[in-house]
Write a structure and sequence with these properties.
The structure is a homodimer. The first copy, chain A, has 12 helices and 19 strands. Chain A is an alpha/beta fold. Chain A folds into 2 domains: about 200 residues, Quinone Oxidoreductase, Chain A, domain 1 (Alpha-Beta Complex); about 130 residues, NAD(P)-binding Rossmann-like Domain (Rossmann fold), CATH 3.40.50. Chain A is globular. Chains A and B meet through strand 15, strand 16, helix 10 and strand 17 of A and strand 15, strand 16, helix 10 and strand 17 of B.
Chain lengths: ~350, ~350
């Protein structure tokens, strides 16, 4: 089948790789309806994370179940499913507490930029949609596999509540999803840090009320000015760098919350500063599985379109162009169909 | 009048100092009914915080209003009042958000181990009790000025909810107060880290269900064992050292919460570890003022006795013995009356 291998920085290839097979009785094999390129894939593509040997990349997916292992009971061949980028059993104490990404058996799903995918722990990882959706619903549903779920968690971890002034640091697809999440979770005012016109446009469509083009200390000063010197109630940090975290902490009001979902790269935290500002922080890989039933229902309700983050649609064979376009910021996020 | 001056490490003296006077029209002067020695006073007494010149120490107090400035409207001479160790206006956006300790005008109250005290921002800082209480209520009410309010905030910041398994790191008066707070806030199981029989006894009286005498990594292992390998829902870190924070983070379950109220001394935080564990943290100086009305009502209801943290009662003139006894861990907390 056609799959996507990463060989090293800047070197992603669409090639023929072995078809996945059931390894454990809890596995399912799905035929990919759509997949995409994630900002975190770019950490490897740009050489920020090491590629020690070639591997089948991609972790976002929707598709039709082809085959299930003997222990799988909740999904069956022919069903259209959406799953988390982290496989989880959904039965351990951590899953039941709402942290499936901290599941005792958690393992990353990988090899998803392919025509078919092996999903471990299928019962705990996949959620069947009400039906097989029309093609125009695929972008919205595909985002739930990671980027929209991650934005949702960022807003939850930030503690967004109705009436809040929220700030989103980062205008990548996750940041934009966090804007939409903050809106759905009731924020009144949503300030997004963005200096790219295409991203600003999506942010505005998603509910952003203010755009701040400044960065670093100037961005902090601007947000403070916009909030009457008080600072924001809830902040989604969707980048993962030290500058982004400093900005997020800097714009928080006394007792505000910061949710951080970008994998930390060189982020430093000061206990003393947190103490002095009473800022509450929570981060981590999003427990996407926990949100899937709710988010799928929102998409089916027809008025929730997180798929607008996809501004480049390509055949799977052209995956390398998807990486290039995102790396060069010609595209926010590339949508791929086999 | 009689007051208490700290001259340097180990050198606290009861001596005659000037009577306080109204400086700003928002001030009040109170006659001290009771005051006490705080664990944070010991940072100076032990030389961990510098004493660059002699100053009038003490920040916990209850008393009778003697005089108010021309702008004070909510308390009046003759009333018995309790106030926070941090003065606040209680009208700025931070106060209205419940973070009076982050008030735009916040300033520490000091000189409280004295026969009379100047309280800045009296309207925003002091709360009048329903009446002038009997002497046997003074210990309970005095704790609300700092230690019980701080324990209350530790539990709130940790996110204690009904049914939780809570852990308290630190068996000083704040830690013990956090045990009582966790109990009042609905925790089912309360594990306290303590290796002193007298403190264990108070903790048990306050609602602790399990005592862990181990420290550091051994304490983490023991708490993990007690929680079936899962970890605790909510943790109050009431010490302020790096070891205490590592212990608190180490016993938290995926998605658990840590509230930290000990002023951080050398505490290091890892963004990566927080990310991997989904642990939520919040710290700071407690917004005691926010809790005073509720906590005063609990004391007056008759079944809430945070004053049990006082195991040494001395005349104010013997304040130096109070410091010595606490420093040598012969006493948990020293109660002083003029």
């Amino acid at each position: 089948m056609r799959g996507t291998m990463i060989y090293g920085p800047g070197d992603v290839r669409s090639e023929t790789i072995p078809d996945p097979v059931i390894v454990d009785p809890t596995d399912a094999i799905i035929e990919t309806s759509a997949t995409c390129v994630c900002g975190s894939d770019l950490w490897y593509y740009r050489g920020d994370n090491e590629v020690d040997k070639p591997w089948a990349i991609g972790h976002e997916y929707v598709g039709i179940v082809r085959e299930v292992g003997s222990a799988v009971t909740t999904v069956k061949p022919g069903q259209f499913v959406i799953g988390s980028f982290f496989a989880s059993d959904n039965t351990c104490p951590h899953c039941l507490y709402g942290y499936q990404s901290g599941c005792e058996q958690a393992e990353p799903v990988t090899g998803c930029q392919s025509e078919a995918i092996r999903i471990p722990l299928a019962d705990g990882t996949l959620v069947a949609a009400p039906d097989t959706p029309a093609d125009d619903m695929l972008p919205d549903l595909l985002t739930l596999s990671d980027v929209m779920g991650t934005g949702w968690y960022a807003a939850r971890a930030a503690g967004v509540m109705p009436g809040h002034t929220a700030v989103v640091v980062g205008d990548g697809a996750v940041g934009l999803s966090a804007v939409l999440a903050a809106k759905e979770q009731g924020a009144d005012r949503i300030i997004v840090l963005s200096r790219h016109a295409d991203r600003q446009a999506v942010a505005t469509e998603f509910g952003a009320t203010d755009i701040v083009a400044e960065r670093g200390e100037e961005a902090v000063a601007r947000v403070r000015e916009l909030t009457g010197g008080i600072g924001a109630d809830s902040i989604a940090e969707c980048v993962g760098t030290d500058e982004a975290m400093r900005t997020a902490l800097g714009v928080a009001r006394q007792g505000g919350g910061v949710g951080f979902v970008g994998l930390p790269h060189g982020v430093k935290l000061s206990a003393g500063k947190l103490f002095n500002t009473h800022v509450r922080i929570q981060g981590g890989g999003a427990p996407v599985r926990d949100y899937l039933p709710d988010l799928i229902a929102r998409v089916y309700d027809g008025d929730f379109h997180p798929g607008k983050v996809f501004d480049l649609k390509l055949p799977l064979a052209d995956v390398a162009e998807g990486y290039r376009a995102m790396d060069e910021r010609r595209a926010i996020k590339a949508f791929l169909t086999p």
